């Protein structure tokens, strides 16, 4: 448990930037601001983050979530640790301890470890420095943040180009892969945003995404902000909706993609991909290069996070299940590459992904 001074601090209403776009995290010169995703959509609150421990806690508690957003936030967490160590003689060990603490926050999204590895490279490049390399670490964190936003716009354009081949249609999405889950714009929801601007999407069918309700609370909110027609349904309505034949694409993000193209994503994605294949709906997975893990041969090697039983046993403060019921709450699943029709990354588009095509694209 963090001590009170290590807990993130609620610091008021999160303002919208001048372009009206959603910013899940903002570097404020000497601290980090997070849009507290636990309070959405009822309240748009800011959480002030001043240390690596607070950063890790905010990731564990899902104040910030979504694979790229976790990576960017953790990178700023390393900057916050360096800030506290700037005048310390021995800054290397405490800084590496902060990196380990951040790495322990969530296990599945590889973007977290990718971003921390980039911060570690910056530390290694300044190993002999007498002071913690604060300016260099901040530059790396800002670069990770800026590039993620650029990559999302690039994937948005690529994905919209693929949808354009078939003409305007309805699409289905799962979880939240929008601006909130990334540095802005989004991955799967970024494709939907870009395609909507080109009038390629008639409506978005949003799955509520039990148990944390990323679809009902976050994707529904983001789509409403943009005026994109969205229809929310319980997760178990998906097969009925897909059978109706209006939806042409299932568009989802990823938390980690193994070398063979197997995709770890929010629990329920596997069942949706199976159903989509059954009903002739194409599955598109949208993820930046930082989500690919070439060190893992297949999805069987990807660690799957399980979260608290309370996410199932309670609605708010009210218990809805019998006492002592045994609960299994895995929050990701693995969709085999064979169920993915199109993989979109900022580096390009892969149809029917496999090991060779992925290795060639990432090279
Ligand atoms: O548990 P979460 O909300 O962090 O899970 C998020 C997802 O599964 C997203 O689909 C994934 O991170 C891609 S986000 C661009």
From TrEMBL:
Highest taxon of the lineage: Bacteria
Catalysed transformations (reactions): 5-deoxy-alpha-D-ribose 1-phosphate = 5-deoxy-D-ribulose 1-phosphate; 5-(methylsulfanyl)-alpha-D-ribose 1-phosphate = 5-(methylsulfanyl)-D-ribulose 1-phosphate
Keywords assigned by UniProt, alphabetized: Amino-acid biosynthesis, Isomerase, Methionine biosynthesis
One BP annotation, GO: L-methionine salvage from methylthioadenosine
Site (Transition state stabilizer): 175
Pathway: Amino-acid biosynthesis; L-methionine biosynthesis via salvage pathway; L-methionine from S-methyl-5-thio-alpha-D-ribose 1-phosphate: step 1/6
Entry-linked SUPFAM superfamilies: NagB/RpiA/CoA transferase-like (SSF100950)
Residue numbers spanned by region Disordered: 1-22
EC number of the protein: 5.3.1.23
A single MF term (Gene Ontology): S-methyl-5-thioribose-1-phosphate isomerase activity
Residues annotated as binding substrate: 65-67, 106, 214, 265-266
PANTHER family documented for this protein: METHYLTHIORIBOSE-1-PHOSPHATE ISOMERASE
Function text: Catalyzes the interconversion of methylthioribose-1-phosphate (MTR-1-P) into methylthioribulose-1-phosphate (MTRu-1-P). Also catalyzes the interconversion of 5-deoxyribose 1-phosphate and 5-deoxyribulose 1-phosphate. Part of a bifunctional DHAP-shunt salvage pathway for SAM by-products.
Family: Belongs to the EIF-2B alpha/beta/delta subunits family. MtnA subfamily.
NCBIfam families noted in UniProt: eIF-2B_rel, PRK05720.1, salvage_mtnA
Protein name per the record: Methylthioribose-1-phosphate isomerase
Organism this protein belongs to: Pistricoccus aurantiacus
